[in-house]
Write a structure and sequence with these properties.
Layout lengths: L4 E7 L2 E9 L39 E4 L5 E4 L1 H5 L8 E9 L8 E9 L5 H13 L1 E9 L2 E10 L2 E7 L21 H13 L9 E2 L1 H16 L15 H26 L23 E2 L22
Parallel strand pairs: 1-5
Antiparallel strand pairs: 1-2, 2-6, 3-4, 5-7, 6-9, 7-8, 8-9, 10-11
Helix pairs in contact: 4-5
Length: about 325
């Protein structure tokens, strides 16, 4: 892992230097759009609707359109004037009982590593949180955005989980539930009996993302067979730095796929569970993950996929 941020936790008068790492990663296979006729890469250009010219990313500002149709344009200088927490400090606001934090509020997770010659302050905070069975609420600023976050312990490592603001959670108000009849005692008893018969200790390693596994097999088999769907492309040099980075990324992905294909042939390819990705234009439905020991995986159906084209905002 590579550190994405350095700073310190302000724990009263105690300062805890830390490095921050992303705690999660996605293993979903990413696709990009191509011309169905010749396999050419589809690229997008930022065109100004007023002058019709292509606009460089450095010349783009952010705008807000009000409900009345008025537009406000803000520059980087405007955003710099907004209040934000110290970029390299994680101040502890208070300590709360862990069970009082609704899991729906949890967002992105980050590991914290001690960043000093002596990790004594880090260990002190970690053991204090474990002893008191409390979670620290902190302010965490990353990529110029300040979030409320929960600081807790996981497997002897301090973890920060950013929290959604209360108004970001929608109210669960469904009229259809207001007049719903209550379950009868006999029904509850039978349902409880079913739950008990299906109960076990949670082990996430028992579950696999069958869709991603079969999709990887499909790609590897296609590459190995060298069929009509495989197109050998040459990396083109682009004057636009951002587009060039995307091309380099695609080239690296192509090499990774080829390496994975070779491993699959030798029987050494391994697959790790991956987070479910929402299909945007899929013609085939994604099957839910099953326990690995349940039954053999069914080959995934072929589906058209669209790329996640990132647009600078």
């Amino acid at each position: 892992m590579r550190s994405i941020w350095k700073g310190s936790i302000a724990f009263g008068l105690v300062n805890v230097p830390v490095k921050v790492y992303s705690a999660t990663e996605q293993h979903d296979i990413r696709f990009h759009q191509v011309h169905a006729k010749d396999g050419g890469r589809i690229k997008y250009d930022r065109i100004c609707q007023e002058c019709g010219k292509s606009v460089q990313f450095a010349d783009i500002d952010k705008a807000y359109d009000s409900p009345d149709g008025e537009r406000v344009i803000l520059t980087d200088d405007d955003f710099d004037k907004l209040p934000a927490a110290e970029k390299h400090e994680i101040p502890v606001l208070e300590f709360v009982p862990t069970e009082q934090i609704d899991p729906i509020l949890y967002d992105k997770s980050y590991f914290l590593e001690p960043d000093s010659a002596s990790p004594k302050a880090y260990v002190l905070l970690r053991e204090t949180l474990e002893e008191t069975e409390r979670t620290a609420l902190v302010h965490f600023t990353l990529r110029q955005k300040t979030r409320l976050a929960a600081l807790r312990v996981r497997e002897n490592v301090l973890v920060i989980q950013t929290l959604l603001w209360p108004d970001e959670v929608r109210a669960a108000e469904f009229p259809s539930l207001e007049d719903a009849p209550s379950a009868r005692p006999q029904e509850v008893k039978m349902a409880t009996s079913l739950v008990e018969s299906m109960s076990s200790e949670f082990d996430p390693t028992e579950y696999t993302d069958d869709y991603q596994i079969e999709l990887r097999k499909l790609i590897d088999e296609t590459l190995a067979n060298g069929g009509e769907k495989v197109i050998h492309t040459e990396t083109e040099k682009d004057d636009d730095g951002e587009d060039a980075e995307v091309v380099d990324l695609v080239a690296a992905l192509q090499r990774s796929v080829e390496a994975a294909g070779k491993n699959a042939k030798s029987g050494s390819a391994t697959s790790a569970p991956a987070k479910k990705a929402p299909a945007k234009k899929a013609a085939a439905k994604k099957a839910p993950a099953k326990k690995a020991a349940a039954k053999k995986s069914t080959p995934a159906k072929s589906a058209d996929s669209t790329a996640d084209e990132a647009k600078g905002a």
